[in-house]
Request: fold
Amino acid sequence: MQQRQCVILSGDAKWCQSSSQILLEDFDNNNILALSNQSHDVLTLPQKQAQRYLGKEFDAVIFDALDEFNPDSFGAIVGTVKQGGSIIICFDINKQPSLSMQRFMRVVAEFEQRYEHFTVVQQDQTVTKLQAPILSNDNQIVLTDDQQQAVNAISKVVHGHRRRPLVLSADRGRGKSASLGIAAAQLLKEGKQTILVTAPSLATVDTVFEHASRLLSDAESSAGLISVNGAEIRFVAPDVLIESDLKADLVLVDEAAAIPAAMLGKLLQKYSRIVFSTTLHGYEGTGRGFAVRFQKTLDDKTPNWHHYRMETPIRWSKNDMLEAFSFESLLLNAVPVDDDLISDAGFDQCHFECLDRQSLVHNEQDLRELFGLMVLAHYRTRPSDLQMMLDRDDVSVYVMRYQGHIVASAWLVKEGGLDDELSANIHAGHRRLKGHLLPQSLLAHVGITTAGSLNYQRIIRIATHPAIQQRGIGQKLLEQIINQAECDIVGTSFAASSDLLDFWTKSGFLAARLGLHHDDVSGSHSVMMLNAISEQGKTVVNNAQQRFQQQWPQLLRHEFKHLDSELVIALCQVLISDHAELSQWDRQDINAFAYGQRGFEFSRFSLWLWLPYLISQPQFKQLESLQQQLCIMTIMQQRDWADIAKSLAFTGKAQCITVLRETIVLLLK
Reply:
């Protein structure tokens, strides 16, 4: 197999451009891509549009980093360079490198020494043209053993026992998406009628449909649809698929790590024959975090699930230098410390430390343990997060160490300190800043006019090593951060869940707002939680929570009418602590409903006043899950009876009312 090649050009813009032309003299300009702000004689796009060409192949790519280096774009575009192809990276020789770029260039130097196909050329040094890839006219699909095993595993999901989903994982270039398309086509040939494909976007599954159509030569094909003899392979967006009544012989979920976890859980519950495909060391860095976190859901819901990992590359050689370079330079292969080395760690044996970024960039072990920890903990930890953490002066990194190893970490960013005029414009809805999430939300959404001038530390990432969670180490990390904080408020915003609410509440944080819209990454609503440090901070935090407490019952009846019951209960428990004032009439109404003497509609208001406080009490937690959900849906959210009956598998309103009366009797006792 031809090796892929990499040339680093270090010079000014004019020299880099002329040198690139010399290097690619024997290449077909129609199959070269330039990611650059300058004009080139080939297809040219800004760096940030690199993802438009995922799944495509080029003989050569020019990556112009003279003005900026976008690590996400670099990680994405490396996978488009075909076997025997070349990538040229241009750097400004006169530009002072940032910390992240210092590390990148250190990796460059290491690869230049190790590989003959990796070359660094300084300004005015001689450049010689590169060898173009050898063209292949073979369009026949020949599967590797790895691909055949993957196709067999997909087929087994359809022909084997129900509710035994498959997780198919691989690094890029292993033919994972091709295997999905080949398996789908074979299933249609066997007589299966409907294969549904879902992914973050239709463009993501181009390769799936391309390979399926090549095996189904007599089929009619259009964007996201292949039809043959009444059978079909159809793309459906994840949210549409969840809400639909579509039946399928098989559901294929491609790039599952980029789909919110909540959606994946719903798909798993809805379809008994399903395959989840994910990239392990992709430019998004999400695959391993997905594997660790989603495995818990699979173990719980479908304990007989299977996993197959594809190893053999098909688009480049097995020990491809360029793939290794992207892994090393972007830390795509970073992993946290091995479980065995920290298995005995307890919170009293760990010590707290604020990392010096200048030292960190020269300590590869710390950097790998730190970044690997975040990749495992967060779905969308990208190479740009590494760049941000090393290069931004407003970011602080705190860790807990056990025997020298990093076992927990939190990243914080400074916010606030806004002047009065800017604060007033944000409060009035006339301005919106990049960043400053906490003060902007308090100004624009909560309406606290004094919030802008305060100084904040926002926790943007936090993680504890999976092997030692539930030992109080993350709690101790937060405690130390609060103790040394030099600001008015320490806060955070995250995808709300009952377990995370409990974690942050135990650390002294108060819920101040729940976002009205779903978070793009998690599919959940984001909750903002705050911990006051100064007296000014206490005033703002108390006002924000009081406002949230006042609005919460009304929000549940309207904006959060369909919020998950478990999350509603968790939020009620942190927001509501006082008895509502109940009149004699209210108590009579509640009793009359419970014992069948009065209809629900005539008792609804009294029940609505009475229930919130009870949700935080032991007797409510002793109810069965179904009874708790029924109380939330009927009394707090006031959903339609048909919706409630469908959600809880009741026959209709009459059964809902009967079970609700029985539940209220239990609570009264």
User: Anything to note?
Assistant: DSSP finds 26 helices and 21 strands in the chain.
